Amino acid sequence: MVLKIFFPQCCNRADSGLLVGRWVPGFDSVVVLAVIHYPFIPGQVKKYLSEMQSAIQLELTVLGSWSMPKDGQEGMDSFLKDLSTIFPQGRWLQLSRELGKRGFACQVIGRDAAVPPRGQPKEGGDDEKEKVIFIHYDQRKVMLSHLHPAHGQEPAAEGVSELRLVFQTVAQSQPLFFLDKYDDGPIKLTHWQSEGREASILVELIKQASVPMCCVLLRATGVRVTGSWRVLNMWPVRFVSSKLSTCVQLSHRTEHLQTISSPRRAQQHADFMRKANIFVSFLVDIALGLLLISWLYRENRIGRLANTLVPVADHVAKELQELLQWLMGAPAGLKMNRALDQVLGRFFLYHIHLWISYIHLLSPFIEMILWYVGLSACLGLTFALSVVSDIVALLTFHIYCFYVYGARIYCLKIYGLSSLWRLFRGKKWNVLRQRVDSCSYDLDQLFIGTLLFTILLFLLPTTALYYLVFTLLRLGVVLLQGFIHLMIDIINSFPLFAGGLRLFRPYRLAEGVKFKVLCEEPGMSLHLMMEINPLKLSTAVQQYRIPTYSCYPKDSWAALCKKLFVGDLIYPWTPLHKGSKED
Amino acid sequence: MLNVTKLNRKRKKTDNATWRESGAPHWLKSDKDKGRRHGGAGRLRTLPTASVGAMGADGGSEAAPATPWRKVLYERQPFPDNYVDSRFLEELRRNVGVRRYRYCAVAREAGLVAQQVSCVAAVLTLWSYMAQGRLSPFMLLGASLLCALLGYVLYEALGGPRGSERTRWADLQSAAIFLAFTFGFSPILKTLTESVSTDTVYAMSAVMLLAHLVSFPYAQPSPPGSLSLNAALFGSVCLASRLPGALHAFAMLTCALLVFALWPCLLHRLRNRAPWTFPWAAVLLSLAAVTGLATLSLGGALLLVLALLALTLLCPLLLLRLQRHKDNIHGPWDEAEIHEDLSRFLH
């Protein structure tokens, strides 16, 4: 059996004293947390330990004794052995180190018998000696780091492995490290913070101010969200606001604010990371937005933008009109049914005419609208992008309308054709059995069915062409909007805090540990140095992504093609319902 | 007889050589076998069901078992498992249910096919006249309506059971729906195939009319088959869209509907009620079609005459000649057919 002793680096040069730590349950290892120096009163030590135990919820015990004799301090061996009777343990460790030597000497005294010290040469055939391995660790780093589950493991399996228990022990023993050597107490400890705790005034001020600010923010966002404004709950307003991406982004950010401004501290590491990520992304967003505003409101850029907007809309409308004229002729040499062609073409032309009149009606107000809308960029770059996406949607509303008309006509035609084709063959769709059955029709049904079938069949190329053209246009607009949404999504969900932490403090996100051999002398125990293996950057980013209202298309390519062929309307960018957002 | 001989020959090869001496059934013995007289062979010969296949039976020197062979496998018998005796295939029957046709009857029934072909030819003739402008649509419309009325009167006069749900009022409604729909859609129909080339239209119509002829329910034309009626109407619509005016299209469609949808019902009733009129009607129709086609093109008329003659006179002859080669075998291995009237279980 190999006994692993996790020894903090800061205690390598500590004065002699008692070792305080924890036996890792279920494994043959022990974590040394601190050294209590002489002189001490055993009763006070025990009281202190029991206080710490109730604060930390870990079984802290006195593990053994540590002796690093300085000049003039000899002959402490018997004193140290007597200590083991004061603090009765299952196993008592006696570690000693000499100045100038690298290795430690270790004696493990069990309850029953003494194990001979390791310093002596090995006697042959003695199996009762315990091998001891010293693993040195950097206490501050291990305390601050969080061990992530290995790749492929579920988080539920946490807490089982030995390494995880060690990390948890050190992380949970934070109150143990509050006593430093300048405190006037009965007990003197050595640990990583015993030289004195660092603090900064700014950090303390922010911590004090954050609680009331959080409460204020919570109150503000709560009022808006609980919907004390009845008008916001009416159906038309809700419908419109679910389609405009600005409103969606607004509600998303409000939720984020609520998460940040909860006055309780985050208990879990994942919650803490989430809050930090949201906060940092918020700040970056607002900074970029302010940058955009400072660029936009200079040199009358808003005015120039407004002046180009109306001509652009006119240009789009003119292009559409030319397209329709082309379709009404003989497009690409295809032969269309002239009458239907004229009807559809004139209908769409009239639509475009209406739309252009509307834009011209609005043109005097556009500059003012843009000015006020541009101010909303101070809420963040994502808002500015959402506003752009909404403007694009509004400007191309007529394309959307045409697409819907074309798709509906085409869908009806395809549906009618498939049903009448079945009638042509004398069959019928059996809804109960979900299959095609034979059916004997009446004479009038047959007659009218055949007539309609012929008509629909010969009018199919015309309708199909209109549908194709408008679907392509609509897909183009959708692609543009999708690109903008992708940018918004990236800004929303990228975990900047986690990325920064991985780059500048890599030990905080640990994936595992690696060991370096410090001292391997024959006859002495093995000394290893434990170093933290940080998480890979890609894994860190993937794990700490902020969940957003994911706007990704939910249809696979095959389903999309089928929908296009049949004439179903495609809605690729509907935001998910709020209730299904994962938390 | 031939088959049985073949079987026996095969069996002979697989069994022992000794079987040949004494074992063949008596009705298959060749002359040289008849000459052999062995000890036990006499007994074998007189018993047609005797056990002649005993393995190792050696020229009748052994006594043949007295038990006859039974056609069961669940008892151990001294015969090999694949043994069959002289009663093999005696339950085979040939051509039991085959009807012997008579030429006159077949020719009469073939008249129905010929008559349908002439209907199609008649419709094509009328269409051609209207396309050339020689026939005014009003005249065609009037004539069609008159024929429809006459046909309806004849239908009612022949009497017979009518479906319980078809009243005169329902018939009038159907007629009104037909006329209204056709009239309403005729402007659309006129421009339907404007952009399609003429050859395509002709090809489509030809295919559709052919499909109509092939899938027509000659056995029972009264409820018209879906595919045949639809194909005929599709073809007529294609042709009607080539006519110069909307009224032409309307008239053409009415005529097509009359010929393809209503005439078979009347014909069916004629055949059932007054069978002696049926051949006359067929002949009359064929003559009319031939004459009409002749005014357009003589070559077409000649082709039509040849086709009709072939259908009516040649094909029945072929059928009768081929009947001789019919060879159906029946036996107890066929599926059982229920011949008694099971409707008594319904009550």
TrEMBL record, chain A:
One of its GO terms (biological process) is GPI anchor biosynthetic process. The chain crosses the membrane at residues 278-297, 343-362, 369-396, 402-424, 445-469, 475-498. Signal peptide: none annotated. Keywords: Membrane, Transmembrane, Transmembrane helix. It comes from the Eukaryota. GO terms for cellular component: endoplasmic reticulum; membrane. It holds the Pfam family Gpi1. This is Phosphatidylinositol glycan anchor biosynthesis, class Q. It comes from Scleropages formosus (Asian bonytongue). The gene is PIGQ.
